[in-house]
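Deliverable D2.4 — example input (structure tokens):
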């Protein structure tokens, strides 16, 4: 897992990875996330839209652990996920 070691003077906006400033405020991020999840653009999130979005997050998180891609997590893989 990538870790950012920061000098105390680096804490603050400048310390964020370069992609962070483009994400906007928390409200803007939420609005953008909603728009991405609302696949049929009806202004509401159905259970399947909500589930589908979070399912992809779970899939990516699982893949980050599953080094040998056998769809099972060994204790070793779980203890040391790939970066
Ligand atoms: Ca919808
Ligand atoms: Ca595995």
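Example output (designed residues):
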């Amino acid at each position: 897992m990538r870790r950012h070691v920061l000098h105390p003077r680096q804490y603050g906006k400048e310390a964020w990875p370069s992609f962070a400033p483009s994400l906007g405020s928390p409200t803007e991020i939420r609005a953008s996330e909603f728009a991405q999840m609302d696949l049929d653009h009806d202004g509401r999130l159905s259970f399947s839209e909500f589930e589908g979005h979070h399912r992809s997050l779970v899939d990516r998180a699982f893949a980050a652990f599953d080094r040998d891609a056998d769809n099972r997590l060994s204790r070793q893989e779980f203890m040391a996920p790939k970066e």
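Residues 47-65 form the longest helix (19 residues).
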